[in-house]
Design brief:
Low-confidence stretches: none
Mean pLDDT: 91
Number of strands: 19
Largest sheet: 6 strands, parallel
Radius of gyration: 24 Å
Strand content: 15-25%
Oligomer: single chain
Structural class: alpha/beta
Distance between the termini: 53 Å
């Protein structure tokens, strides 16, 4: 059973959602099973078929019926039809274990891919090869930290990655170790522990007790998350060592995590690395978005984390949780968190810095979204969280949002904005 999460520094609706997510993950944390298929076919991505980034692929039996355990997809009939049209008449005389789409994204690799390997390290199942699928044009060879993880599991020499349908004598299909917002099985923890145990071999004791996993040197984050460097200074002022995981190999990242008593990180991929951490470890997650990450509650539970969530973000317009842009700053929630934990605040944000951040935010929003005046359908379910975050953020940024204060230089000479400022002065 997980330690009780500290949700005192989350907005109210977001607290309620997190607690609901915990209940869902707890309820669905059940033992996993393996389905065995004789004379089956592995189907990679159906060309030109994508539903909001989730491509259709999986395993078919000898009657070309889709095996549900092979993937949580929306259009199994399309996979079946594609398999009937493109399956080879003869197959390979191999027993393989199907483990889904091998992604190059680190956060999805350690959640979706590594969790699917629970059966491969179980010791109960005999197989010749492990089969992943890929999209055309993707790297067909694991590299970097992904390859290093497979090596530490001693599975790297058994990996096949296919991009066209292949029939096999027998296909073992393990249930997914995790499905976002649904389950993260405790059966998967052996995978992460095996990797961590390998990484810790020969590790020295020369690691800090407190670490902050920063994003301030990650090129993608620098362009769309403001102001990351302030948080480096904040945690540094409070005795945390700052590390940049993208500059480390996975062995060193694991060593930093496992040797630390306390970890802090922005929400998203970085806290997912706690899958390699110690059970019961302390972590503070600085929330950069209005919603809860789809995987993190399940990770909190299976690793029994002692986690504190802090809503140190502003939300102005609805944005993609994967892209942003995001404003992260010392709002009232972070200030309360710091005060309650006797932490030293870094230099305060003055009005000039707030305005600078908001200008960068609007420029990036326009560059990425252009004139997209509609809200994506998948954001509709978040509407109450977005409204809550916006109302919270309005207290700090409202003057620039309602036009009572000029944001850009052109606003100073704009007749429209001049009229709005006069209106606000008369109104108040």
């Amino acid at each position: 059973m997980m330690n009780v999460a500290n949700i005192d520094y989350l907005r109210v609706k977001k607290r309620d959602l997190l607690l609901k997510r915990y209940e869902i993950f707890k309820r669905n944390n059940k033992p996993l099973r393996v389905v065995e298929i004789d004379d089956g076919t592995v189907i990679p991505f159906v060309p030109n078929m994508c539903n909001e980034g989730s491509y259709e692929c999986g395993v078919l039996n000898d009657q070309f019926n889709f095996i549900p355990e092979s993937g949580d997809i929306d259009f199994p009939n399309l996979v079946e039809n594609y398999g009937r049209e493109h399956s080879a008449e003869t197959g390979q005389e191999l027993t393989v274990m199907y483990c889904g789409h091998l992604t190059g994204h680190w956060g999805h690799f350690i959640t979706d891919n590594l969790s699917r390997l629970w059966a491969a390290v179980d010791g109960k199942y005999e197989f010749d090869r492990i089969v992943f699928v890929r999209q055309p044009g993707e790297n067909n060879t694991p590299v970097g930290n992904i390859l290093e993880c497979l090596k530490m599991l001693h599975l790297d020499s058994k990996i096949d990655i296919i991009e066209s349908p292949v029939r096999y004598k027998k296909i073992l299909v393990p249930e997914s170790g995790c499905i976002p917002r649904h389950h993260f099985s405790s059966d998967t923890t052996r995978v992460y522990d095996l990797i961590a145990e390998e990484a810790m071999k020969g590790a020295s004791d020369d690691y800090p007790d407190k670490i902050f996993m920063s994003r301030s040197k990650l090129d993608k984050a620098i362009k769309v998350e403001y102001d990351l460097k302030w948080f480096d200074r904040f945690f540094l002022s409070n005795g945390y060592a700052i590390i940049y995981p993208e500059q480390l190999d996975i062995k060193d990242t694991i060593r930093y995590i496992r040797k630390a008593q306390t970890v802090a990180a922005f929400s998203g991929t970085l806290p997912h690395n706690m899958l390699f951490g110690n059970p019961g470890q302390n972590i503070t997650i600085i929330e950069k978005y209005a919603n809860i990450n789809n995987y993190q509650p399940g990770i909190d539970l299976i690793r029994n984390l002692n986690v504190t969530y802090v809503d140190a973000n502003a939300l102005i317009w609805s944005v993609s949780a994967g892209y942003g842009p995001f404003i992260v700053y010392p709002n009232k929630w972070l200030q309360k968190f710091a005060a309650d934990h006797q932490m030293i605040m870094a230099e305060p944000w003055d009005e000039s810095h707030l305005r600078h951040i908001l200008r960068d935010y609007f420029r990036e929003f326009k560059r990425h979204y252009g004139y997209q005046w509609f809200m994506n359908e998948w954001l509709e379910e978040e509407i109450e969280l977005l409204r809550e975050a916006y109302r919270d953020s309005y207290k700090d940024f409202g003057g620039w949002l309602d036009g009572s204060k000029p944001l850009f230089i052109k606003d100073i000479i704009s007749l429209r904005n001049f009229a709005k400022r006069i209106y606000h002065k008369l109104k108040h």
